[in-house]
Amino acid sequence: MKNTGMTRPLDPLGRVVLPKELRTVLDIPVGTPMQVFTNGAQIMLRKHSSGCVFCGELENLQTFKEVEVCQSCRTALTDMLE
Ligand SMILES: [Zn+2]
């Protein structure tokens, strides 16, 4: 995980504003559903994804015809076609 160098305060309702430049670079328009993950004391946000259409994996996704497919399933599909 990369440190952006940005620090933002937590407001009284528990909200943190994601800087506009970060939202622009990461293509996160207003209204984008965000998933919240924890790992020990860390909190991670990511754009909502239901994961790979075949296995549910959330990492290394690529979109094909509006569905997301993980690396493992892309490899399996490629192998199947050979
Ligand atoms: Zn998959």
Could you give the count of β-strands? 4
Q: Helical content, roughly?
A: 10-25%
- Domain count: 1
Radius of gyration: 16 Å
What overall geometry do the principal axes of the alpha carbons give? elongated
* Cα distance spanning the termini: 36 Å
Give the averaged pLDDT, no decimals: 93
| Helix and strand element order | HEEEEH
Give the biggest sheet: 2 strands, antiparallel
Helix/sheet category = alpha+beta
Number of helices: 2
Strand order of the largest sheet: 1-2
Strand content: 15-25%
Model description:
The mean pLDDT is about 95. It contains two helices and four strands, in the order αββββα. About 20% of the residues lie in helices and about 25% in strands. It binds zinc ion (ZN).
Condensed summary:
The protein has 82 residues and is of the alpha+beta class. Helix content is 21%, strand content 24%. The protein has two helices and four strands; from the N terminus they run αββββα.
